[in-house]
Structure formats: structure tokens, C-alpha cells
Amino acid sequence: MISERALDRLSGMFRAPDVSGTRYQILSQLGRGGMGIVYLARDTALDREVALKIVDRSDAGTGGGPAALAHEARILARLEHPGIVPVHDFGELPDGRVYYAMKRVRGERLDAWLSAGRDLSDRLAVFLRVCDAVAFAHAHGVVHRDLKPENVMVAEFGDVLVLDWGIAINAERGMRNADRRGTATEADTVQDSDSHPAFRAPHSALPDYVAGTPAYMAPEQRCEAAVDARADIYALGVMLGELGGAAPLVAVAAKARAEDPDHRYQTVQDLAADVQRFLAGRAVGAHREPIVDRLLRIGRRNKVAIVLVLTYLAVRLLLLWLARI
After folding, report:
1. CB atoms near residue 99 (< 10 Å)
2. Domain match, 146 and 106 both
3. Are 87 and 213 in a shared domain?
4. Which of 12, 25, 83, 291 shows the smallest number of beta carbons within 10 Å?
């Protein structure tokens, strides 16, 4: 028998949101996820298209709901970075559902973008853009906890955006709550909880209720131990490993996803720096290269200079030979 809560949730999923009295006009549905539905809407006040993420109050017991959506909106609002989608508005619809409005992004998810077949340098350039956005979040005390290709968008004109910050946490609070098996209280997860009715939701609606995506989760995240920025570094290591590449790049990815957090790169900047060194043809810290590989790498990096020196030597030898004739 289907419970009343389940029936309410199904009803909320299939009925169109009531946006009467708001500045928004629903145009179409863009997607549906574990925490709400995203609609394409027109902001009638500014005459522009936006994306509206909407959840129903009946989702509060499933790890989603108003509190989780409000938490995500606040995370995005504090992270003003070109690689993170900006939030324009947050509120409650006449039908009781909660929403936030964000920039409408045109492009494709990273997993789809990669499936088209891309040059390694292009793939790594996108990866470094992801690193830049994540490093910015870490600098502001935020850990994403669900980094994966499906949560990265490559926009039409080359912008790269990290999406879905619904289970992001404050890194300092995440460490403080380790003795509670990674489960934050409402006060720990959402500040100023009385500032909007949407924040008043059951404990189970808070972001820590959702763990992440198993294939990209660090060991400490899977066992709900202390989680800090190095959990995101692990996920980035998994993503980097999926991009392929030569032995030095494989070594970089392996170090990023080391089982022990202390053996990983300690900052995203350190990880990105090794990837940049690889792209520049320089030695990377995570890889001990054989002497032959080192000579070949130096040769590739200094190809023009080597050709000029060899040409010069060949001409000198030719002139010396001609002088003896």
C-alpha cells in the first residue's frame, strides 16, 4: 500500500508549480534530480531566461526538501566565481513549494562532452577549470562532496561550471562533527535557520543525510568519518584518472586518490600544479620517471633548440670536411 507521504510526493512531482504572483513564467522542464526539478523560466521583471530549482515540502524526509534546497542556495550565493552558477533569487511559491532562481546555462555535461572524443590537452584544460572553482570553494570553507563529470557543465562558449552543491558542507564543521559519524545538526549545517520558513525542516532533510556518489567518494566519506577538502581532492583524482594520459598523469591521479588523506595532495592547487607541469612538459612531483623517459621529455620540450644545435654542428662538420678537400 502506498503511503500518504508517497502519494503527496508523486502528486507534487507531476503537477506544474504555481508561480502566480511571482516574477517568473515557466517555459519548460530542464531536468529532474534527487533534490527537486529544474525548470526553464522567464524572469518577467528583467526579461531574461533563468533556471528555477523547485522542491516540494513532502520531500523533507528523503534527504531533500526545503532546508536542503535553502542550504544549497546559500552555498551558491556565497561562492561568487565564474566556475560556479550564480543564484539570483530564493523564495516560496503560492503552492508551498520552495525555489531558487539561478543563471540558465547552455551547454553539455562533462560526461557527454568527453564522449565526443577530445584531445588530451583540451580535457586537461577543462579539468584545471574545475580545479580552480573547487579551490575557490575550499578557500571559502566549503567542501562539495559530490564531484563527478555529471556535476560539471561545459558551456557553449567554453565556460566550465561546477554544479549541484546540495550536499556541500562547511569544512570546519565537518571536522568538528566527526565523532557524530559525519552527521551535522541543523545549527551546524544551516546558519540563521529562522530567517526563512523554508529552513524549518526535520533533521533528516539536511544535506548530510545524502552521502554522495560511491565511485567518487573518499574512503573517509564512505565510512562517515571526518571529511575535509581532501575528500574533494580524492574525487578529482578519480575524474583525472578517467581522462587518460601518459604515466606521469596516471601517477598524479593515483596520488590524488590515495586511501590515506595524508598521502594525497593537500590542496587542489598542488594537484593542479602537477597537471600544469605535465602539460608544460616538465617533471611532475608524483612520478619518478626513468632516465630514458626523462631524456625524451626534455627532448620534446626543447625540440627547436636541439634541432638548431644539431644543424649548427652539422654545418660546422660540413665546412671542416670541405676545407680538407
Report:
1. 27
2. yes
3. yes
4. 291
Closest alpha carbon to 174 in 164, 161, 165, 183 = 183
Query: 146, 164, 188, 274: which one is catalytic?
Result: 146
- DSSP E strands in the chain: the ranges are 24-33, 36-43, 48-55, 87-92, 98-103, 107-109, 142-143, 152-155, 160-162, 169-170
Residue 258 lies in a domain: yes
C-beta pairs of 38-42 under 8 Å, 24+ apart in sequence: 40/104, 41/101
What's 71's DSSP letter?
H
**Is 159 a catalytic site residue?**
no
CA distances from 78 to 51, 174, 230, 268 (A): 18, 18, 21, 19
Is residue 286 one of the residues assigned to a domain? no
- Give me the number of domains the chain comprises: 2
Rounded Cα distance, 71 and 53, in Å: 13
